[in-house]
Batch of 4 targets.
Target 1
Amino acid sequence: MKSKYFKVYSLSEEGKKNIIVLANLSDELLEVIFSYLNDLKTYQPYEKSAILSLAEKTGESAERLRKAVFAADTFAKRMGELDDSAQDLYSDLVSLNILSQSIPQFLRFLEKLSSISKKYYLLYRATDTSEGGVPNLSRTSMTVALKPVFDKDFVYGTDDIMKYSPQMINFAAVAHISIERDDCSQVFPFQVKKADLDKFITDLIVLQKQLIIAEQKIK
């Protein structure tokens, strides 16, 4: 055994339950889990819509599949990072009494998972690196607003508020944009005029093209 990961970093009770769920799945469901992880193009194994799709496809509960995917993800990353074999993992789990009996189909699943563990770990590291360092975009909200234009502003210290009676003479069209970051759930609103929005869109298209070229270079 090259490492004793689960002995050094003790598993939580929830983590143990997830492993037990995975270990007791049928061969068919284990194959579904393997194919799901193997087919990932970006590291998003817990995406809710994907788990729900698996549940609909298999007839298994989404919660059990989420637990199973969580455990399988942990195993795949560990084997990819630490070079542990499927037997290493299996021996750890048996010695910790997480597995109380021999489960041949689970060992076969781990052996198959080990064949993609390097690729899977590199996918995880690539995603972790690309999303680390600075906050990520969580969501955006955009709308067009018509703001009233008044003929005069109120000047503090000069105008009498009781006599201030501006006239609305027109509307100004602006775009309102709100951006929410994933690190603090804070929303940052701002507004732009058409010319500024045109430049912003152009800058985004330029950045999109550069990103596509960069991604093609690293495949």
Note: The mean pLDDT is 86.
Target 2
Amino acid sequence: MLISFGEIKEDREGWPCRAFRWTFQAGRDRLGFIHQHHLGGEWRDSHTLVYSIFLMEEWSWGMDHFWWDGPHCILGLGRIRIQWFRDGCRKCNGEE
């Protein structure tokens, strides 16, 4: 299931995306709010602007912080991951 919210058109020169939007997604392996960009005629999920719960194959316990196309704060509870976006996270930004 995917529910989308209002689109924001991209009109900055040189940007490859045509628009952005927030979605609420519910599926077999995730539930949450995911930011999307419109590129090449299709909507694609962001990997950074995410507030969601994921079900993963691997087990993980505790907090994880890393920077990959933006900050990622993730709490591992076995196979369940809870991810949120926090732009000012010092650990994700490598400041701690």
Note: The radius of gyration is 15 Å.
Target 3
Amino acid sequence: MKTLAAMFKKVRWLSWAILGFAVVVVLWVVRGLFAGRKPGAVGLPEVPDKLKAKVQKAEEEALVARVEATVEAEQSKKVLDDVAAIEDGAERRRRLAEFIRNQ
């Protein structure tokens, strides 16, 4: 701090000029960051309607595929439960082999 005070005493006008320039630059940067913008104006642009339609269609197709997979899994589980209910023997092995071939 003493060095800064000594510099101010030696070159008073240059020190004030540098300090003033620094203040102006800081104020200019702060003004640029906050001035002229509405709150909430910063963000993503609006999504076009065509893109929204494509996304909705893809979501519907994914939902249909998920439901179909669930139905198929339930059918497979039902067949396996029926096979598990059969007492261990040739009939059970035959049905299990048939189930595996159909998959």
Note: The radius of gyration is 38 Å.
Target 4
Amino acid sequence: MTPLVLEDVLPHRGAAILLDEASIGDDGSATCIVRITAHSRFATPSGVPAVVCLEYMAQAVAVQASVAVGGIHGGWLAGCPELELFVDAFALGDVLRVQARPSTPPGHTFGAIRAFFCTVHREESLLARASLFVYEPPT
């Protein structure tokens, strides 16, 4: 795993960056860490609502896409045909591992739309998974 500087691979800035760490695996997938604290964006006394992981996943996709093209590459979440949440919220103190890997078959393209499969784990427990479609404008 190659650790990355978030500001080098995300178009987000300041409080809009929800990830704490990011790295790229040998297979090109992004693995990101999110630490849930009382100061996390969207935190309530009971934690962060699980639906927020959709943005964690989207930022992990942005990390993967930026590394793949060699620089910050903006894009937009175009769709989420499948999202499964296995918890209602992430508890204060949770350390989440967010993974994003391209799932568009090699040799197939959908124009500027790319598909990704994303997961969120706490240790070995699967907390959420989703398929995302992302619009990536030409570079």
Note: The first strand starts at residue 2 and ends at 4.
